[in-house]
Amino acid sequence: MIVGVNCGHTVSGTVGSGAVGYLNESDETRAVGYRLMDKLRANGVTVVDCASDYAPTVGENLREIVAKANAQPLDLFVSIHFNSGGGRGTEVYTYNGQRFEAAELVCENMAELGFINRGIKDGSHLYVIRKTNARSMLIEVCFVDTQSDADLYHKVGADEVAQAICDAIIGKRMEEELTMSQYEELKNMISTEQARIDVLQNEMYKVQNPFIYNYIDSNMPEWAHEAVQWCVDNGIIVGTGEGLGLDNTKLWTCVVIYRLAQKLQ
Question: Which of 61, 78, 81, 240 is deepest in the core (most CB within 10 A)?
């Protein structure tokens, strides 16, 4: 897999360097983006750095980003951004709002970190989405001008955000760690269900494997010997070449018939 990663905007303090609030977009796109590149490479992904640090105009910055992306046969292009406008949470822009696994997992994995899932939106109007040849997504990590988002971002850290995006690209959902009480509860639940399974398997064995008594010998319960012998002698039960073929129910039937005959006599 070949993935192009763009750390959005130019470097801080230059033309087109992005939004500034409680967070500096230019600084944080690079904090997340370069960590993302390292994590993707560690997972065997070929990474193309599509950042454009300096440009005389915003338009030239965007054209340079797209040129870097289209110079390579990318499987996916990812542009990292931070939002502004007073909202909260993470959103992902794709061409025509197309839903695909990596984009959906970014939203889900970021939600696991505590960010509001704002979903997938139509990014056809965005230059880097519209002009790149590869399947593309632009990720707005959170809002730089919302205190709660900035606080959460600082708490989680750029590395965890990069990991969430990396996992999404390689097709992994972030797994929430179990507390000790949750672990014990899960272990007890598994133990209870296993006990139920054992009982059911035992009952099924009994149904599928009833004990059959084919001969009047030591294998047959002693309490049934006399009654079964009497039934055989009086032609009430007749065996085949394979024996009598009696199960426990038939043994008790023989005993009842024998005792009833004894009383009638």
Answer: 78
pTM (predicted TM-score): 0.66
Burial-class residue 75 by CB neighbours within 10 Å (0-12, 13-18, 19+): middle
One-letter amino acid of 157: G
- Encode the chain (265 residues) as per-residue pLDDT tens digits: 999 999 999 999 999 999 999 999 999 999 999 999 999 999 999 999 999 999 999 999 999 999 999 999 999 999 999 999 999 999 999 999 999 999 999 999 999 999 999 999 999 999 999 999 999 999 999 999 999 999 999 999 999 999 999 999 998 765 555 566 666 776 777 778 777 777 766 665 555 556 788 888 878 888 888 999 999 888 888 877 778 888 888 888 999 898 988 888 7
Q: What is the DSSP string of the chain?
A: -EEEEEE-SSSTTSTT---BSSSBHHHHHHHHHHHHHHHHHHTT-EEEE------SSHHHHHHHHHHHHHTS--SEEEEEEEE-SS--SEEEEEGGG---HHHHHHHHHHHHTT--EEEEEE-TTSHHHHH-SS-EEEEEEEETT-HHHHHHHHHH-HHHHHHHHHHHHTT-PPPPPPPHHHHHHHHHHHHHHHHHHHHHHHHHHHHHS---B-SSSTTS-HHHHHHHHHHHHTTSS--BTTB--B-HHHHHHHHHHHHHHHHH-
CA–CA separation, 4 and 15 (whole Å): 23
